[in-house]
């Protein structure tokens, strides 16, 4: 019995804990970090609610201390992907038929568990597994994940409430079905919140899901999966597998019941997936929904009226928080000649105070990059810059992987606005600056707009309102998230729906109703209350 409309009102954003010296939250987090470090985790896959161990294990190690083992996870193969799909499809009918308020309660309970007794589990797992400092973990694996769960429950309720009009004698209604098949969620290493949200948002809408996280994010993904099970998620609704990407793709993209992909990761991987889906289109029972949020080459453009301290701080935080491993991270900056020197001096002074090291030492602002492959790739960009003509390293430039994958926050200055580090996504603590003639603001906006194929985030920093207006207009398609007098990172669920266009993705805005519509397939039902019994039009006269 559910004879009522149940209300899921708009929530407030989860408050961010400060982890100040001597605070109880800092003590609790330190305790959980020590507990994880003292244990060897044995992490299974979850298929049909069962823990699956293959014996083929992969070690988990903190990127900032690669000689320490946190444990291992069990790696699967094509047979596990098939089993996960079978389990999902078997769970589908019952899950899709469950009344919304019952489904919603599971995700709201998960949010409560993360906000309360598992907050430090989520944050400590993210700090150790992905090398995020306490603040960066708190805004991700606690607050943003909680917000995704709570706000999406509210948005789904709002969507379900939307109904068509009915003319006299007719009752029209819209039913928001889940997709007919299973959804694949493929998630990145850099945000625990995104990893949790991609399977959860689809499942919330009545879908069943196969979820594959990045290998380097499994430690925290596993904590989230355990919380979902404790919150009451039925067996088979979300099936968590750890497999090689191409092995996964080979099974999923050939399956007739493949109904959609919820992806976040790099542009190349997404484009390859899209191509494969296109090649297999005739195999599917339904046109798959393809949702992908991908790379960025995010800009900060300062106007000659900007306050140099504001620009320097937006760059220090926007480019270097979480070692620049945010899709939104500022990685190219355009500084007007009149304030460039002052901005650079202030920025370099701020960077000198940023300590680099482990996440367990809370005084470190910068931690390690995710793995050796990423370290080597970033180091190569730095090495090339050291030798390039017209290019100068004005801060950082050193790196060392003997203990952890540490790279100093590095600032490159180039005379060429199309130098490679102004164009390509590096995904590390490297910012490139180009100084332009302060009287050529409109021309530089054109350069900003045409330099990279991406359009994810970007900022204009200025005091002059005409300049702000001009940049807002000229850069209309250059960023899906556009900031005025702020850094281009740190979108908050419910406040700045997130996503970019061009090569940055399908711009379906995670943490908004726009995203949730993609996981629904509406059925229109028209009911005629007193059906006609004569075929003739009412206005046709007898001859
Ligand atoms: N736009 C956004 O909202 C957003 C958010 C976070 C990260 N990102 C982007 O993600 C990237 C960094 O994350 P990453 O390094 O985890 O990305 P990635 O593309 O290497 O991996 C993402 C996921 O895809 C899987 N994968 C890789 N190759 C695959 C294949 N051939 N078939 C199937 N799956 C495959 C990975 O195992 C992982 O689970 C950056 O480009 C960043 O800009 C974008
Ligand atoms: N939503 C995050 C970025 C997610 C991508 O890595 C931000 O706005 O900084």
TrEMBL record:
InterPro entries: Ald_DH/histidinol_DH (IPR016161), Ald_DH_C (IPR016163), Ald_DH_CS_CYS (IPR016160), Ald_DH_N (IPR016162), Aldehyde_DH_dom (IPR015590), P5CDH/ALDH4A1 (IPR005931), Proline_metab_enzyme (IPR050485). Pathway: Amino-acid degradation; L-proline degradation into L-glutamate; L-glutamate from L-proline: step 2/2. It comes from the Bacteria. One of its GO terms (cellular component) is cytoplasmic side of plasma membrane. Its EC number is 1.2.1.88. PROSITE patterns: ALDEHYDE_DEHYDR_CYS. Residues 56-523 form the Aldehyde dehydrogenase domain. Signal peptide: none annotated. Gene3D superfamilies: Aldehyde Dehydrogenase, Chain A, domain 1, Aldehyde Dehydrogenase, Chain A, domain 2. It catalyses: L-glutamate 5-semialdehyde + NAD(+) + H2O = L-glutamate + NADH + 2 H(+). GO terms for molecular function: L-glutamate gamma-semialdehyde dehydrogenase activity; proline dehydrogenase activity. GO terms for biological process: L-proline catabolic process to L-glutamate. CDD domains: ALDH_F4-17_P5CDH. Keywords: NAD, Oxidoreductase, Proline metabolism. It holds the Pfam family Aldedh. Coiled coil: none annotated. NCBIfam families: D1pyr5carbox1 (TIGR01236). Belongs to the aldehyde dehydrogenase family. This is L-glutamate gamma-semialdehyde dehydrogenase. It comes from Chitinophaga parva. The gene is pruA.
């Amino acid at each position: 019995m559910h004879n009522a409309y149940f209300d899921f009102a708009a929530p407030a954003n989860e408050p961010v804990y400060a982890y100040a010296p001597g605070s109880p939250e800092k003590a609790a987090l330190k305790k959980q970090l020590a507990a994880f470090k003292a244990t060897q985790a044995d992490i299974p896959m979850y298929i049909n609610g069962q823990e699956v161990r293959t014996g083929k294990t992969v070690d988990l190690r903190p990127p900032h201390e690669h000689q320490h083992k946190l444990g291992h996870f069990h790696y699967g193969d094509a047979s596990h992907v098939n089993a996960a799909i079978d389990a999902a499809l078997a769970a589908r009918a019952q899950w899709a038929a469950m009344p919304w308020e019952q489904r919603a309660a599971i995700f709201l309970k998960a949010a409560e568990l993360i906000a309360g007794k598992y907050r430090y589990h989520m944050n400590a797992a993210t700090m150790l597994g992905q090398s995020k400092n306490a603040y960066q973990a708190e805004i991700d694996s606690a607050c943003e994940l909680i917000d995704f769960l709570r706000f999406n429950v509210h948005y789904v309720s709002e969507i379900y409430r939307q109904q068509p009009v009915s003319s006299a004698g007719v009752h029209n209604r819209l039913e928001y079905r889940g997709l007919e098949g299973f959804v694949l969620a493929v998630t990145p290493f850099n945000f625990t919140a995104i990893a949790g949200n991609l399977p959860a948002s689809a499942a919330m809408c009545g879908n069943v899901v196969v979820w594959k996280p990045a290998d380097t994010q499994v430690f925290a993904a596993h904590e989230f999966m355990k919380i979902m099970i404790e919150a009451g998620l039925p067996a088979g609704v979300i099936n968590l597998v750890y497999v090689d990407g191409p092995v996964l793709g080979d099974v999923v993209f050939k399956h007739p019941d493949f109904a959609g992909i919820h992806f976040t990761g790099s542009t190349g991987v997404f484009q390859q997936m899209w191509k494969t889906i296109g090649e297999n289109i005739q195999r599917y029972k339904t046109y798959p929904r393809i949702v992908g949020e991908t790379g960025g080459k995010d800009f900060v453009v300062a106007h000659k009226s900007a306050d140099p301290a504001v620009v320097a701080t937006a760059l220090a935080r926007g480019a270097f928080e979480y070692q620049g491993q945010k899709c939104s991270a500022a990685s190219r900056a355009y500084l007007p000649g009149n304030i460039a020197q002052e901005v650079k001096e202030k920025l370099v002074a701020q960077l000198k105070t940023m300590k680099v090291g482990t996440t367990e030492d809370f005084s470190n602002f910068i931690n390690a990059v995710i793995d050796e492959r990423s370290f080597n790739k970033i180091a190569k960009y730095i090495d090339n810059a050291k030798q390039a003509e017209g290019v100068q390293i004005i801060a950082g430039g050193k790196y060392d992987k003997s203990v952890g994958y540490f790279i100093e926050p590095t600032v490159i200055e180039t005379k060429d606005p199309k130098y490679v580090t102004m164009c390509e996504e590096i995904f590390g603590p490297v910012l490139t600056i180009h100084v332009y003639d302060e009287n050529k603001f409109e021309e530089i906006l054109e350069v900003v707009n045409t330099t990279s194929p991406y359009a994810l985030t970007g900022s204009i920093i200025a005091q002059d309102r005409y300049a702000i207006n001009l940049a807002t207009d000229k850069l209309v398609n250059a960023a899906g998230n556009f900031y005025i007098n702020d850094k281009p990172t740190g979108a908050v669920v419910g406040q700045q729906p997130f996503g970019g266009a061009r090569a940055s993705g399908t711009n379906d805005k995670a943490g908004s109703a726009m995203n949730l519509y993609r996981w629904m397939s509406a059925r229109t039902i028209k009911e005629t209350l007193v059906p006609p019994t004569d075929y003739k039009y009412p206005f046709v006269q007898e001859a």
